[in-house]
Every structure is written in structure tokens, then in C-alpha cells.
Amino acid sequence: MIKRVLWMLLALSLCMTTFVMAEDSAPDEEAGSLVVVTEDAEPEVIRLRKAGTIFLQLGNYAAVTEGKLTWIDLANKNVIPYIKEDRTMVPLRFLTESLGATVGYNAETRGITVTLGDTVMELTVGETTYFLNGEAFEMDCAAEILEDRTFVPVRFVSEALGKAVKWLGTERMVVITDVTSPWDEAGSVEQAVLAQVRLNLSPLGRNNIR
């Protein structure tokens, strides 16, 4: 009798777990995104933490921006972040457009111009010198072209555009936020957001990119 009751409780628990997982994994109708659907609305503090935040992971062709799962480059899964000379290199166009900036490229000079509000950053593929509103600065790793895409050191470009960058070593992940709201790795809100991002960027989560 006791065994029968235990088996009934276990079966009920599994049914409830399956129901929650099915609801939690429901994909949004918007292409390229994965949202978590729960019975209660997502807390405002979580939504605010996701706003303006970008997650990129080494070797991963997916990224999370504004809490949404998306392709880094829809046409090429080989366009992924990597390490060069101890610097994290990311695709320039994806990074800048995710930050709301515009980017221009001069094929003859291999010069790149990134504009965000009143900030103008100019750099050249293969050179470590860059200009920020006309003033010269140095990077320790030059922009380069791979997979027919321009890659740049994420920290230099992001910080030049007024953003904060946090490296999460155990996750092999870089987090980009507004400089006024840096990522607090030990914060409870950040931990909740990171748990969702970790799932979204996993092989299972990437299956939801359409």
C-alpha cells in the first residue's frame, strides 16, 4: 500500500514537471527569439536587467540581446566569438547594431566608422590605432577579417561607445551593458537572468532559433 502511494506521488510530480517544462519552453512567435512563459508575469526587475544587455559566448553562433535569443550571423554559423592574444574578438556589425550604432566600411582603405549618438569611432582593419571623436588611441589587438566578416576586440569597441564589459570566465561569456548599469556577477537578479541565458545558449536552447 505504501509503495503504491509513493508511485502515485512520483507520477503526479512528473506530470507537473512536464507541464511546467512545456509552458516554460514555448517559443515566441517572433522569429529568432525564445521567451520563458510562466504563470506569473516576469518580474520588472528582471526585464530591466535584460534591457540593453548583450551576451556573447566563445564558440557559440547564437547570442542573447534584450533577453532574446538570436543568430550572430544568419548566413554563417562559423561567425563566432573567439580569443586572440588574450582578447575576445566578436563580429563588428553584430556588436554595433546590437548597441544601436551604425557602421560604415570603406573597402579601398579598409577603414571602419562606427557612430553612436555623438560618438564616432574610426578604425582600420589590421591596425591597432583607432580614433575616438578625432583623438587617437591604441588597441593591443587589431581588427581582422575572418569568414568575410570584420572582427574586433569587444572591450575596446564597447567601452569606446560608452558600454561596460564583464567577462564571465566559467561561462566563457562576455556581457555588455550600459556603463551606468554594470553587470554584478554576484547579484541575485543577474544570477536569475544568467540562468535563462545559459539555457538559451545551450544546444537545446539554440534549436528554438528560427
Provide a descriptive summary of the structure in words.
The protein has six helices and 14 strands. With 210 residues, it is of the alpha+beta class. The chain has a single domain (44-206), classed as Copper amine oxidase-like, N-terminal domain (Copper Amine Oxidase, Chain A, domain 1, 2-Layer Sandwich). The longest helix is centred in the N-terminal third of the chain and has 23 residues, at 2-24. It starts with a helix and ends with a helix.
- Mind summarizing the main beta sheet? 5 strands, antiparallel
N- and C-termini, Cα separation: 49 Å
pLDDT below 50 for ≥5 consecutive residues: which ranges?
Answer: 1-39
Physical arrangement of strands within the biggest beta sheet: 3-2-1-14-13
* Oligomeric status: single chain
Content of β-strand = 25-35%
Number of domains: 1
- Which class of secondary structure composition applies to the elements? alpha+beta
Helix content: 25-40%
Helix segment tally: 6
Q: Could you give the count of β-strands?
A: 14
According to CATH, the homologous superfamily is Copper amine oxidase-like, N-terminal domain
Question: From N to C, what is the helix and strand string?
Answer: HHEEEEEHEEEEEEEHEEHH
In short:
This protein has 210 residues and is of the alpha+beta class. It has six helices and 14 strands.
